[in-house]
Amino acid sequence: xxxxxxxxxxxxxxxxxxxxxxxxxxxxxxxxxxxxxxxxxxxxxxxxxxxxxxxxxxxxxxxxxxxxxxxxxxxxxxxxxxxxxxxxxxxxxxxxxxxxxxxxxxxxxxxxxxxxxxxxxxxxxxxxxxxxxxxxxxxxxxxxxxxxxxxxxxxxxxxxxxxxxxxxxxxxxxxxxxxxxxxxxxxxxxxxxxxxxxxxxxxxxxxxxxxxxxxxxxxxxxxxxxxxxxxxxxxxxxxxxxxxxxxxxxxxxxxxxxxxxxxxxxxxxxxxxxxxxxxxxxxxxxxxxxxxxxxxxxxxxxxxxxxxxxxxxxxxxxxxxxxxxxxxxxxxxxxxxxxxxx
Amino acid sequence: xxxxxxxxxxxxxxxxxxxxxxxxxxxxxxxxxxxxxxxxxxxxxxxxxxxxxxxxxxxxxxxxxxxxxxxxxxxxxxxxxxxxxxxxxxxxxxxxxxxxxxxxxxxxxxxxxxxxxxxxxxxxxxxxxxxxxxxxxxxxxxxxxxxxxxxxxxxxxxxxxxxxxxxxxxxxxxxxxxxxxxxxxxxxxxxxxxxxxxxxxxxxxxxxxxxxxxxxxxxxxxxxxxxxxxxxxxxxxxxxxxxxxxxxxxxxxxxxxxxxxxxxxxxxxxxxxxxxxxxxxxxxxxxxxxxxxxx
Lengths: 342, 295
Hints:
Oligomer: heterodimer
Number of strands of chain A: 12
Helix content of chain B: 55-70%
CATH superfamily of chain B: MetI-like
Largest sheet of chain A: 8 strands, mixed
C-alpha cells in the first residue's frame, strides 16, 4: 500500500455457503482509494456492490457461512497497515466506526428510535475513546455543527423521529465521522432523500472530505450522483468489475456494453446513439450466482454478443487506455463500430 | 405520526401530557379504572392496617364469626375472632408483594433469555427456546405444588417458585420481538460503529422491546397473584397465622354456610386485583401499539 492510499483491496473474493458447496458472489475485486479521493461503485441490484462493502467491513455472516479471501488493507491509528480480511471479530470492532466507517441508504431506520440523537453520537465516540460523558457530548455537538445541522444544541436532545430525512442522514454522517476515519463507505446514502436534500448531502460529503482527506467508497446506481461526487468509477456486474476508469472516461466514453446499457437507461438526452426521449433498457435479469452463464457473465443480456465467442470465452480485465480498464472480448470491434456510427 | 417539535426541549417536561401513548391509554376506560382500583388497593394495604382498631393476629374467641359492621369490626371476624378487615389488608400486603416480586424476577429471567435467544438465533437461540418449551410443557400449577411441597413455605420461597414457573411466556414474547428488531437497519448501523454484541442486545434492542415487556409484566402480576392464591388455598403456600388472600379462602371454606363473608371478602379482593391488572395490561397493549389509532 502506497503512502497516500487509504485503502487497498486486492483479490477480494466472497462466497456464500449453499448446501455442501460455496457459491461465489464476488470475484477478484481490486481497487485502491487515495487520500481525498472518491471511488464510485456502480451496478444494478444483485451485482455484488453491497456484498463487497459488507465483506470489507466483515459484517457478513461468519466463517462457515461465508468465505472471504484476498486482502483489504487500511492503516491503523499509528499508520501501520492492517488487513481487515484477516482480522477477528474482536479486533474488527475497534476498526469499525474508527478507521473505516459506513453510512447507509436509509437514514430513517439506521438510527435507534429510542435513544436521543446526541447520545447516539456520543456513544459512537465512547466505543473507541475513553471520554467522559460530558466531553463526548461536547464532541457530539461539534460534530452536529460540522455536518451543518441548524440549532445543534437543541437537536442533541431530539429523538430521531423528530428530525427530517436529510437531518437524520446528517446525523448518520456525524456518527460515521466521529472518529475521523480514513475510509468512509457510503452505501447509497442519498437514494432515500429528495433531490435538493441529496445535493446538500453530496456537498457536505465533498466539503468534509476536503477538510479531512478521507477516502470515500461511494456505492450507488445513480449516474447523476456519480458525475457529481466521484473521481473514479467502478462498474460491477455479477460480482465482477466489468469496467473502471476516471469519471470522464467511463461516463463519456463507456466501452463495455453493460456500462453503455446502464447509461442509456438514465433518463437524459445527450448520449450519442440514442433516439431522443427514448429510454434504454437492459433486457433480462442479473444471473443467479449459483448458475452463472458460460463465458462472459453478461452475454445472455448483451445486444452485441456473438454465439461461439461471448458464450465460450470468459473476458479478462484489459487496460484499454491509461487508467481505463474493461472486461469484454469484443471491445475493439465495438469501439470501431461506435466510431463509425458517429 | 408527526408531533410538533419546535418548542423542544424547554417544554419537554410537559410533553408527556400530549403523549399519544398516554392519550390512547386514557381512552381505555377499563384500564383507567384498573389503575384507580390498584392504587386504592395498594394504598389501603400499605396504610390501612394503621387506621384499624384491631391487629390481624389478635384473637378474641368471644367475638367469633361476627358479621360485618359489628362494632369496629367493619368486615366482621373469623373463626378465632380475628378482625377480617385487618387480615384482609395484611394479606393484601403479602399477596401483592409476592405477585409484584414474582413478576420482577420473571421479567428479569424472561427478558434475559428472550433477548439472548432472539439475538443469537442459531443453535443458541434454538436451544434456549426448547428449554423454554420444556418448562412450558409442565402444567404450572402442579409444578408449583410439587416445588412447594418440597420447600419450606416462606413468602420468599413462594415468590421464587411462582417466578420460576411464569417467566416462559415473557421470554417467548421478548424473543419474537428481538428477532424482528435485530433485522432492522439500526442493528447493522450499531455494529458498524463498533458496538459489541452485549451492547447491541441490551442497549439497542431491549429498549425497543420495552412495550411488550411492560404489557407482559402487568399480565404476569395478575397471574402471579392468582397462582399465589391457588397454592395458599391448597395449603402449600403462605402458612397461617400469616394471612394471605389464598389462605383466608382456605380457612373460610369450612364455614361457608355459617359465615359466607369470610370467603366472599378475600375472593372479591383477588378478583378485583386480578381483573384490574388484566385491564391495565389490555390498556397498555392498545396504548403502546400505535396502530390502534387507526381503528
